[in-house]
Amino acid sequence: RYALEALNHTLQDLRNNGKNMGGVVVLIAGDFRQTLPVIPKGTMADELKACLKSSYLWRHVVPFKLSTNMRVHLQGDVSAGRFAEQLLAIGNGEIPADPVSGLINISDNFCNIVESVEELKKN
User: Fold this and answer.
1) For residue 110, what is the DSSP state?
2) Is 25 helix (H, G, I), strand (E, B) or coil?
3) Tens of pLDDT, residues 71-91
4) Residue ranges of the domains in the chain?
5) Do residues 58 and 8 touch, judged by C-beta distance below 8 A?
6) What sections of 30-77 are H helices per DSSP?
């Protein structure tokens, strides 16, 4: 949040323009689930306050959702596609957690279990 607001002020100053982002279109790409703020010794309220969605700029954001995983698409690897789908399902909360342990059961084809470092190096 603070970095985006700093960028806003910098662009306004550089362009001598009081509009958001100095009047230019800014494209920010990434998985917002992976960009949560880290507040040392902070509370959950502190983390929420630091989130991009808490910024005064958020109401001007137009989010787009990509529909094709280009890395998987270009590789043409079926197993990589399944892996990407499973990761997305976990990230979207579509895989239920065990009510007792809170852990998620991962299918056997999600990873390779090896007995030693040497075997890992071979794979």
Assistant:
1) G
2) coil
3) 777 777 777 778 888 888 888
4) 2-60, 70-122
5) no
6) 44-50, 70-75
- What is d(CA 35, CA 41) in angstroms, rounded to the nearest whole number? 18
For residue 8, the tally of other CB atoms under 10 A from its CB is 19
| Whole-number CA gyration radius for the chain | 21
Chain Cα centroid distance, residue 55: 18
Residue 104 backbone dihedrals phi, psi, to 5 degrees = -100, 130
Q: Which of 94, 115, 92 is nearest to 105 (CA)?
A: 94
Query: How far out from the chain centre does Cα 34 lie?
Result: 3
Q: Cα 105–77–106 angle (5° rounding)?
A: 5
This prediction has a pTM of: 0.56
